[in-house]
Amino acid sequence: MTTSRWIGARERLVSGLARQWREWRGYLLFFCCVWVPLRSAVVDYNPVPTGSMNPTIVEGDVVWVNKLAYGLRVPLTQLYVARWDEPRRGDIVVVLSPQDGTRLVKRVVGIPGDTVAMVENRLHLNGQPVTYASPKHEYGARITGPLRSRAHFAEEDLGGVEHPVMGLAGVSSPYRSFAPVVVPPGRYFLMGDSRDNSLDSRAFGLAARDDVLGRAGGVLVSFDLYDHYLPRPERFFTRLR
Fold first, then answer.
1. Which CATH number fits domain 43-239: 2.40.160.100, 1.10.260.40, 2.10.109.10, 3.40.50.2000?
2. Where are the domains of the chain?
3. Which of 52, 194, 198, 201 is catalytic?
4. pLDDT per residue over 212-233, tens digit each?
5. pLDDT band at 132 (very low <50, low <70, confident <90, very high)
6. Of 18, 37, 165, 218, which sits with the fewest C-beta atoms within 10 Å of its C-beta?
7. pTM above the 0.85 mark?
């Protein structure tokens, strides 16, 4: 290639890049200066690929996360500018796993100062058994895949926060019972609502306060992972409890 051709090719390349920058700079600036900080510090979404929170959250749900629920962080960091609340018993939180740092969606069952134990899949808090009642809804219709025929449900009362939990018939697990655990300051005991199908604090230990990214408030959209990702519009824009 001659010098003149090389210079011409370079000029065309520079001109093309400049044109692309002019056309896309607004989108890029919005993404870098607005969208990324917004998702990092204000509000986010989190797809849920597993059934550990059945029947409250099912596989294929995409939940929205209020990252201002407990405080304000510097975007793209774990550093707090201000804190105005703490995770409460019964909250559904998005948290970094103490095991490998992956994002998890779990329920807070033990806060600092609590003593948590389980006896045959029944939760005990501060030396007292938690109240269980008959399910208020037909939760079985929500369960997809092979677990539906084995699932049974109850309403659990975590100090005034009532929510459904699920067990699985025929499961033998070492996590159905465990000795009392005292939750120290700055730590939280987390569990999935599907008590026989959840990797949680019973396995990986207590979660640190700074690893709690926010509180899950509701389901944005939902797709059936077991049926060609068909949308489940009845779950769109529903609140969590």
1. 2.10.109.10
2. 1-41, 43-239
3. 52
4. 999 999 999 999 988 889 999 9
5. very high
6. 18
7. yes
Which of 106, 194, 198, 201 does the annotation list as catalytic?
A: 106
SS3 (DSSP) at 167: strand
- Tens-digit pLDDT profile for residues 73-92: 888 788 889 999 999 999 99
Q: What angle do CA 14, 17, 20 make, to 5 degrees?
A: 150
Over the range 107-146, which residues count as b (16 or more CB within 10 Å of their CB) and which as e? bbbbbbebebbbeebbbebeeeeeeeeebeeebeebbbee
Q: What CA–CA distance (Å, rounded) separates 177 from 182?
A: 15
Residue 106 annotated to the active site: yes
Tell me, yes or no, if 40 is annotated catalytic. Answer: no
